[in-house]
Amino acid sequence: xxxxxxxxxxxxxxxxxxxxxxxxxxxxxxxxxxxxxxxxxxxxxxxxxxxxxxxxxxxxxxxxxxxxxxxxxxxxxxxxxxxxxxxxxxxxxxxxxxxxxxxxxxxxxxxxxxxxxxxxxxxxxxxxxxxxxxxxxxxxxxxxxxxxxxxxxxxxxxxxxxxxxxxxxxxxxxxxxxxxxxxxxxxxxxxxxxxxxxxxxxxxxxxxxxxxxxxxxxxxxxxxxxxx
Length: 228
Fold this sequence. Notes:
The protein is α+β, with helices and mostly antiparallel strands. The chain has 2 domains: about 1-95, Hotdog Thioesterase (Thiol Ester Dehydrase, Chain A); about 95-228, Thiol Ester Dehydrase, Chain A, CATH 3.10.129.10. The protein has 4 helices and 9 strands. The chain has helices at about 1-5, 115-120, 135-140, 150-165, and strands spanning about 15-25, 35-45, 50-60, 65-75, 105-110, 175-180, 190-200, 200-210, 220-225. The chain has a 9-stranded antiparallel β-sheet with strand order 2-3-4-1-6-9-8-7-5, with helices on one face. The longest helix has 18 residues, at about 150-165.
């Protein structure tokens, strides 16, 4: 992540970076073949003791029109204990929605490709931690882990399509995706995606790994755009 490197004098230190949360607000459709401008800036920094939390705001624009806003929350390990707090209050992009306490309305399964991390690099992922076996093992992992946004994209699309197929929601554009990452995923594993319908436009999603089912790898909120 360029924002993380900006806080480490431009050095590539993927072993220090933990992607904690991602909030995506879609305002306008992004059309293939058009040219868009992407800007990114750090809007908040909070010292968490052993870690430094920073929030980056990214915008995808077409001319003067902002099509997408993104909040990325990233933790830098071993960079805390500075006592620094920017004191800036960042307005959330997603509402707070509590997951229903009942059993999931839908359960989906998705088998990841063994080369899923390498394939995802075609979208511009330059973090060597997702492809370098030696680096992954030095950090205590069996192999390179999958990018969190790849897991988010697969899980949210699988839940969305499953809910449409069951007639629970209409095929409307996704307006908000809000996700908190809690554990890693290895390429080749099987995702178990649990979905709760709060109402016809709001879905709560939790994804587990079938081979390691003790706790979710992330929790996600998906909001559909209102019908035009």
